[in-house]
TrEMBL record:
Protein keywords: Hydrolase, Nucleus
Localization per Swiss-Prot or TrEMBL: Nucleus
Domain of life: Eukaryota
Gene3D superfamilies: P-loop containing nucleotide triphosphate hydrolases, Tandem AAA-ATPase domain
Gene: SMARCAL1_1
Protein name: SWI/SNF-related matrix-associated actin-dependent regulator of chromatin subfamily A-like protein 1
Signal peptide: none
Chain ranges of the Helicase C-terminal domain: 479-633
Compositionally skewed regions (Polar residues) per UniProt: 27-39, 61-85
One cellular component (GO) term of this entry: nuclear replication fork
Keyword Hydrolase belongs to the record: yes
Biased composition (Basic and acidic residues): 1-26, 653-671
Amino acid sequence: MSSLTEEQKLRIEENRRKALLRRAERSQTQPSHASTGNAELTKVANHKPTNVPLKRKYDGTFNSKQGSSSPHFQSTNRASGSRTNTVPINKESFYGTKKQVVAGSCHLISADRFMVEVGYNQDMIAMFQKVPDRRYHPDERHWSFPVSRHDQLMAALKPLHPGVAVAPLPAHVLRCLRQPAPDAGKVDLSALDATLLEALMPFQREGIKMGVARDGRVLLADDMGLGKTIQAIGIASHFHDWPLLVVCPSSMRYQWRNEFLRFLPSQHPSTIMVMDSSKDFTTEARVLIVSYDLLSRCSKQLRDVGFRSVIMDESHNLKNPKAARTRAALPLLRAARRALLLSGTPALSRPVELYTQISAIDRKFMPVFNDFGLRYCDGKRNAWGWDFSGSSRMTELQILLERRIMIRRLKRDVITQLPSKQRHLVLLDPGQVHCRTKKMNAMETRMAKASLKAAERRGALLEYFRETATAKLPAVCSYLEDLLDSGAKFICFAHHRVVMDAVCELLERRKDQHIRIDGSTQAAQRKRECDRFQSGSAVRVAVLSITAANTGLTLTAASLVVFAELFWNPGVLTQAEDRAHRIGQQDSVQIRYLVARGTADDHIWPLVQRKLDVLNRAGLSKDDFTEADEDRQRSSDQQPLITDLFQQLASEDGERPDADGESTESGKERAPSVSETGMSHSQRSDGSATDDAVAAAVSEQWVTELCDADWDEWMGDDNGDVPDAEGPTSKESQ
């Protein structure tokens, strides 16, 4: 102890004294365990008794004798071990005098009722019970009231302030609810082109009326496959506000032009123009169709035109307000008299993506972005600012959008008006199809020769078909990428391995989960892959071989089937379509055939189209062409004989074998090519009866030969196989 300083010695002594005091306290409660050092304890306790601090100890009891609920404390003198009497503590000073505030808010649960989310307050509940048409929701433990009672309820809650604080419905909600809803019933569509009116389904006609009633400024958000394109064309043509600008994904530009030419025959084709590059910019077009990329690059020139109507296809591409395409699109949309935004998925992941589209149509709806984010995006402030990545009050937002700017119908809402299967022909972007190469030109020239025999023509078409697969590839991948951006789940059929490889490479680069089934896939693996596709939404694409996966698979998780390549056996095509169109499918199935001008598709598609018509009229197929053909042939009460149908097919093909088995030209006009015909579930060849003179010229013997030989030759062999460009057929490799 000699090396310790005086201060350290005093501290040690003080600690020793405190320890002995604690031991003395314990010995008083347990006298039988008293230690032999009591004399020393007494000496230390009497040393400096006045310097020991007193501590209050809560005994956890209330003074019931005095009828008070105030807590009591006991004071203990640790030096002497004595206890003082209990000291009453005032309840207000112990718990605090601040009263608890019951806070809440209001939000819509339907177009005519709102709910009050608030805690419990007896006075408030008593007041709620006095409001007429009140309703208590035991599941949510909240009350709801008619919107017409909103102001009355807020006035009744004022006397309870500040104990009860309920935020009313925001001004934009009340303003929207109190404005009269547009009356679509008074809209007259008789001025539209007759071709357009005849093609409209009832719900599409109603959609056009709703768009016109909202003055042509609307977000058309119908489910995929419900015909947003034809409705947008109908709304735009009703107002006749030209010029019209159409902005769409690059792969859909020429499809839009064909739809305008098809449904608006009153417009001259020269007035409907597509911009392939900035050099194609013109101010003379009545309808100008551009891609989103060109919109960004030519924004100044487009603004100077002064478009009176603007259509934005796949408008979810405008979700980012800082993107160049959004900055270029918003001034055009706000300046135009008519603004039509089209998207089956307006918000791909979160409601904040809707704001730019809403503000483009109606800036007065919610002019301040922060207000929108706080109310509908579950806005929260963090160390870096505001976070609007969440969602809140989605029911209210949907009610306001549908009442003010949005038209949305799901397939289940109009399923009774839809055919079970719809076919569409999609013309690929010619700027991305490599059809002007030397090899492709030589093949097209060879196919145009009238002197080719049937076998030679088939061989030339096979070679042309293989080369077309490579020529179409960039355009096919571009179309599929736009489809993936829209969030669709679909089946993609292809025949050549080079096409399937390119599609799978695209999906892997985008990190989209997919399955692949071709001729090399074993039976057990096929079952596992199908189960993966069917089980959830994570696997978005099934890449299938037309010949190896057209039977035995059930893939009803998708209602969209895309054919990246054609195939001339219609039986194989319809079987492939039915991988999605089968028992268990709840939606109308969309079939999209991707075709390109100036390729083998010009020859294969008309051939497939004629043979599908023949099969349906003969009762040998179950696809949707059957009903349409019956509608056009009601004048004939008798079902045509199958031999008559084969005679018609032969006369339309324009070839007839002579005595030596060779084919000669019959003088009939050639079948329309892809560039001359469009396709949907209701647009095909007219199915008119063959001219009597031509039918009489076809002998019964030749019909029999056609059934036995030429039919198989043109349709493919019994297995429907065509040699692949890179090896044996899919079934041989399997």
